[in-house]
């Protein structure tokens, strides 16, 4: 998806000259050992680079300037082994453009009761050094991640690793180009938004193209590429009889393969890692791209249907965050409700475009009429998705700010087979229950389009919202309607006062 090995995070240890050379040498050695330990952890996906201990305002400013200018550096981690008077950090922190994580750890885990003396106390000062450092960032209203825990523990390493994944997603957005093939679905509100504000806020650039830009690539697809891809379809999926060689719908599969090859060529030529389409602007495309979009998502592309560029960009960022983790991530839509006497559920799906990374088994490859858009019958992959914890995330434009809404859900097995439903789908139980979850979602203006992930937890998106400086609303097992409404009201005032949004 991306080349993680090329990326790095800088580990910056703060101190001052007051302690003398011997202590500063020990500080440097200890912080190098922490970096080595974190780099050896399988939970930490990005290489940490140990930087010289910073002891003066000039050294701090210099390392922040270098971090800003280094394109491989996706963020910094800071730690105050000793006391580092925080006025020294003001200039450096004010110019820092990269995400920052404040790791509140300590070189030794426990107090050595029988040996502890004042030398030990002078060396191991993060308990107060990190508080001084925390104050200045709070005083400067600087958003950052704070992680508290001993660096050798799995819990701390996991938190560091997860934050690095979010920083990778953020780094991806800074260079992301989204191609909109066609415009927004006519008259739809929630998929619209301010693309200029989005570029200022998230870095992502969103620009419009025409179906003819893709068709041009479709027309130059070679027979050998086409035959190779048809073989891939035969190997990776259960093709229904009509799509197999000699089947009466074989031409539909050939058209779908040409669309995939053409779309891939278009995206590669333009350097796009995310895209949208819409059934109302298909031009000369014979089918609404289904199989092609599903397979591109599985390869890590962001996608949003009906011109939904916000979801396309969010999906790409979240796909990058999940690289190497178990569990899939897909474009999703709340499609149909299942109200029962016991509990209520939502069936998530889309007309075609659900990513097979969330499939529970080998997908079947089928062709059915769409009943919308007036094109030929599109080919699509059909599958169920495994049960277990997941979440839906929706990014909406509130006019003066972007709002990210997250609902934790529990995917469950459908009560019965769905032999006549020709699309991939997931059934979930939204937390805390259907009533509170969906009432809150609707009050928040959450979209019908979401990113559905089994690989990320809410904490990833909380960190993402902090890095982006956007509003986050979480609906989980602790949500109550009254508290949620209060949060909505409080946030209106907060974002009006501070104009963080745009
Ligand atoms: Mn839709």
Summarize the structure.
With 502 residues, the protein is α/β, with parallel strands linked by helices. Helix content is 38%, strand content 21%. The model has no long low-confidence stretch (mean pLDDT 97).
List its traits.
single chain; 502 residues; alpha/beta; six-stranded antiparallel barrel; five-stranded parallel sheet; 15 helices; 19 strands; 38% helix; elongated; binds manganese (II) ion
> Which class best fits the helix and strand makeup?
alpha/beta
Helix content: 25-40%
How many strands, which pairing sense, and closed or not: the largest β-sheet? 6 strands, antiparallel, barrel
> How many E-type strands?
19
Spatial extent as radius of gyration: 25 Å
Strand order of the largest sheet: 11-12-17-16-15-18
Continuous helix count: 15
Q: What is the residue-averaged pLDDT?
A: 97
Q: Which outline best applies?
A: elongated
Kindly report how far apart the N and C termini lie: 30 Å
Into which percentage range does the β-strand content fall? 15-25%
Give the cofactors and ligands.
manganese (II) ion
| Poorly predicted segments | none
Protein name: L-arabinose isomerase
Organism: Christiangramia antarctica
Family: Belongs to the arabinose isomerase family.
Domain L-arabinose isomerase central: 177-324
């Amino acid at each position: 998806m991306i080349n993680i090995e090329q990326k790095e995070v800088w580990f910056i240890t703060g101190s001052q000259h007051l302690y003398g050379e011997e202590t500063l040498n020990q500080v440097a050695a200890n912080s190098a050992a922490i970096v080595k330990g974190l780099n050896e952890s399988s939970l930490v996906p990005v290489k940490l680079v140990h930087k010289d201990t910073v002891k003066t305002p000039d050294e701090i400013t210099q390392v922040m300037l270098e971090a800003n200018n280094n394109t491989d550096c996706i963020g910094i981690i800071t730690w105050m082994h000793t006391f580092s008077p925080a006025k020294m950090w003001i200039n450096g922190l004010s110019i820092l453009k990269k995400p920052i994580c404040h790791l509140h750890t300590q070189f030794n885990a426990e107090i050595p009761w029988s040996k502890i003396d004042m030398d030990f106390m002078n060396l191991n000062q993060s308990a107060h050094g990190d508080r001084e450092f925390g104050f200045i960032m709070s005083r400067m209203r600087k958003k950052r991640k704070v992680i508290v825990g001993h660096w050798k523990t799995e819990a701390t390493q996991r938190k560091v690793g997860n934050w690095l994944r979010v920083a990778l997603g953020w780094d991806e957005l800074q260079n992301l180009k989204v191609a909109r093939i066609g415009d927004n679905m006519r008259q739809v509100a929630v998929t619209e938004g301010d693309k200029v504000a989005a570029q200022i806020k998230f870095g992502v650039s969103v620009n419009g193209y025409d179906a003819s830009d893709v068709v041009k690539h479709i027309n130059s697809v070679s027979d050998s590429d086409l035959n190779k891809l048809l073989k891939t379809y035969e190997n990776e999926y259960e093709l229904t009889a009509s799509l197999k060689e000699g089947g009466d719908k074989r031409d539909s599969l050939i058209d779908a393969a040409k669309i995939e090859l053409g779309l891939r060529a278009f995206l590669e030529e333009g350097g796009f890692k995310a895209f949208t389409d819409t059934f109302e602007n298909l031009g000369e495309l014979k089918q609404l791209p289904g199989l092609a979009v599903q397979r591109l998502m599985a390869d890590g592309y962001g996608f949003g249907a009906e011109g939904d560029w916000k979801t396309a960009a969010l999906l790409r960022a979240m796909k990058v965050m999940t690289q190497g983790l178990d569990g899939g991530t897909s474009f999703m839509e709340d499609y149909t409700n299942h109200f029962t006497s016991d509990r209520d559920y939502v069936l998530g799906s889309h007309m075609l475009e659900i990513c097979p990374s969330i499939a529970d088994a080998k997908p079947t490859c089928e062709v059915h009429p769409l009943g919308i858009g007036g094109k030929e019958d599109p080919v699509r992959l059909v599958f169920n998705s495994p049960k277990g914890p997941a979440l839906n995330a929706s990014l909406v434009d509130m006019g003066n700010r972007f709002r990210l809404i997250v609902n934790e859900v529990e995917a469950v097995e459908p009560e019965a087979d769905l032999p006549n439903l020709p699309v991939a789908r997931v059934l979930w139980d939204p937390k805390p229950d259907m009533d509170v979850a969906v009432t809150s979602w609707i009050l928040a203006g959450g979209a019908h389009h979401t990113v559905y992930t089994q690989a990320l937890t809410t904490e990833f998106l909380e960190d993402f919202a902090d890095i982006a400086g956007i509003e986050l609303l979480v609906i989980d097992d602790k949500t109550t309607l009254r508290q949620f409404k209060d949060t909505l009201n409080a946030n209106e005032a907060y974002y009006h006062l501070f104009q963080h949004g745009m």
